[in-house]
């Protein structure tokens, strides 16, 4: 092993972006894993079958997303700077409910 190999051991691996949706019972109901890790979550969602189904109104319900997503009629995102009492209540409910997906991992 030469000096370069000893001092610079590189690990090369592929990273995949995993887009996941779960229900309140922590069951995964939608998983997309075909995008490279450099793809933004919102891009993965915008190009997913789930987004198309929701845009067409073919499925009832709402999704809760992070601030990196655009707020849509079927995708609720946190407020940037909640100031009123109703906004703070929404923010608290959003963060508490969205915690469900965090617990699935």
Blueprint (SSEs and pairs):
Blueprint: H1 3-7, E1 16-22, E2 28-36, H2 41-46, H3 49-55, E3 63-64, E4 75-76, H4 85-103
Parallel strand pairs: 3-4
Antiparallel strand pairs: 1-2
Keywords:
105 residues; alpha+beta; two-stranded antiparallel ribbon; two-stranded parallel ribbon; 4 strands
* Termini Cα gap: 40 Å
Poorly predicted residue ranges: 1-8
Order of helices and strands: HEEHHEEH
Give the radius of gyration.
19 Å
User: What quaternary form is this?
Assistant: single chain
Please describe the biggest sheet, giving its number of strands, its sense, and whether it closes into a barrel.
2 strands, antiparallel
**How many strands in all?**
4
User: What is the structural class?
Assistant: alpha+beta
- Range of strand content: 15-25%
The number of helical runs is 4
| Structural shape | globular
What features would you describe in this structure?
With 105 residues, the chain is α+β, with helices and mostly antiparallel strands. Helix content is 35%, strand content 19%. The protein starts with a helix and ends with a helix. The strands form two sheets. A two-stranded antiparallel sheet has the order 1-2.
Summarize the structure.
Helix content is 35%, strand content 19%. The chain is an alpha+beta fold.
């Amino acid at each position: 092993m030469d000096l370069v190999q000893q001092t610079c051991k590189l690990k090369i691996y592929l990273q995949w972006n995993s887009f996941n949706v779960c229900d309140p019972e922590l069951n995964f109901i939608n998983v997309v894993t075909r995008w490279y890790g450099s793809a933004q979550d919102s891009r993965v969602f915008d190009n997913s079958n789930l987004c198309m189904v929701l845009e067409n109104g073919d499925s009832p319900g709402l999704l809760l997303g992070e601030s990196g997503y655009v707020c849509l009629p079927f995708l609720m995102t946190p407020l940037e700077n909640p100031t009123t009492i109703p906004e703070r209540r929404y923010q608290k409910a959003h963060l508490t409910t969205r915690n469900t997906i965090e617990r699935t991992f």
